[in-house]
Amino acid sequence: MKTSETSLFVGFIVLSPLLLAYLPTQEPHHHESEHEESPLEESMEALKDGFKSLRRTLGNPEAQAHHLKTLHSMQDAALESFPLCPDPLSPLSEKETLLWNLEYRRAMLQVCSELCELELAVIEGRQDDAQSLLRALGSIKKKGHRAYKEEDE
Questions:
Q1: Angstrom distance (rounded) from CA 39 to CA 37
Q2: What are the φ/ψ torsions at residue 2 (nearest 5 degrees)?
Q3: Predicted TM-score (pTM) of this structure
Q4: Which of 26, 39, 108, 136 is most deeply buried (CB count within 10 A of its CB)?
């Protein structure tokens, strides 16, 4: 390298970090599919995770402590979602909207009630009842998703 090329190269190496430090930074690009979960989505995700965990482990009576912890977190999630009614799937009158919200809250109370019944069955070691109650919760979940969730979700 010639002297002028060498000094230009050295200058570039020395100044590059300084120039980069002063360039404006860009926010990372977020894809449309990346969105912050709403409190309702977070609660429903906690219920879903608990349900999956129980389906895998409920047949194991030695995992009672895990089952109870999972059930308590699911009960908390159901209670957190109680006031968080999703928007109606189609336009409704004021009275129909009030009824929509009421039915949603009733469904969440039913989930809580079933979770408490399942907790009792776990405490008492009634494995067959616990399995039946878990299946009943699965039915409640399906019914609720048909009523309150968009089909494409």
A1: 7
A2: -75, 165
A3: 0.74
A4: 108
